[in-house]
Amino acid sequence: MSRLVFNQILNEVLATTRLQVFLNELERESLYTELLHYFGLIGATNECKALENAWKDPYNRQKIEEFIRAWLKRKSRKKKPETAMIV
């Protein structure tokens, strides 16, 4: 259930960002786990409710959005092919 809440949050953030990013299942899982760890929600009695409540709080919502955007930017930088100069 918490993955459903996470996917809704991720979709909202992606809708408001200009980044064109596609996340496969492993990347989504990695982002989900890192998000829960960062905000101290991992292992909560009810992770789903905790994540949903955090998203409803304006301060936490802003921090969650910032975290996801930063994660997506790091991911997009890693995927860019490196250019080499041939002499």
Strand content: under 5%
Report the structural category: mainly alpha
Taken from the alpha-carbon principal axes, the silhouette is: globular
Main sheet properties: none
Number of helical regions: 4
Distance between the termini: 55 Å
- How many runs of DSSP E, i.e. beta strands? 0
Could you list some keywords that capture this structure?
single chain; 87 residues; mainly alpha
Describe the protein in words.
The protein has 87 residues and is an all-alpha fold. It is 70% helix and 0% strand. It is built from four helices and no strands. It has helices at 2-16, 25-38, 47-56, 58-79. α1 runs parallel beside α3 (47-56). The longest helix has 22 residues, at 58-79. It starts with a helix and ends in an 8-residue tail after the last helix. Mean pLDDT is 84; it is low at 82-87.
In brief, what are we looking at here?
The protein has 87 residues and is mostly helical. The chain is 70% helix and 0% strand.
Secondary structure layout plus pairing:
Layout: H1 2-16, H2 25-38, H3 47-56, H4 58-79
Helix pairs in contact: 1-3
